[in-house]
Structures are given as structure tokens and as C-alpha cells.
Prior knowledge:
The chain has 78 residues and is mainly α.
Amino acid sequence: DGIEINNNIKATILDYKxxxxxxxxxxxxxxxxxxxxxxxxxxLYLSSAYKTLQNLKxxxxxxxxxxxxxxxxxxxxx
Length: 78
């Protein structure tokens, strides 16, 4: 009851754009999490790891919600 929230924090929480950007970040990172989980599988084969990496690259390439620069930078390190 006696808790005060900083006005900047309150404004961020109420900002629709903040939540949309957060969703974009979540959607961008989710394929990487799935990729990592698959790599941690005890029955992983090299061919399936390669296929999973290719799927990840395709997902990044087709993600039009992120900037072209971020897509290119991400694909360079993949």
C-alpha cells in the first residue's frame, strides 16, 4: 500500500511501445533458446544439429520485425 513507483518506471510500464518491443525481443530470442535445448539433447546427431542451425538461420532471415542490420549481424556470427 505504501509503495511508491518512480514516474519513469510507471511511464515505462504503461508504454505500449515498450511491451511491443519486449515481445519482439522475446520472439527473436525464442528460436535461439529452442536451438540450445536441442543441442543439449543426449541423442543429438551432427546432421540434426546442422539442420537445426539452418532452421535457426531461416527463422532469423525471415524475421521482418527486427532491423536488417540486426539480422545481418546475427547471421554473420551464426
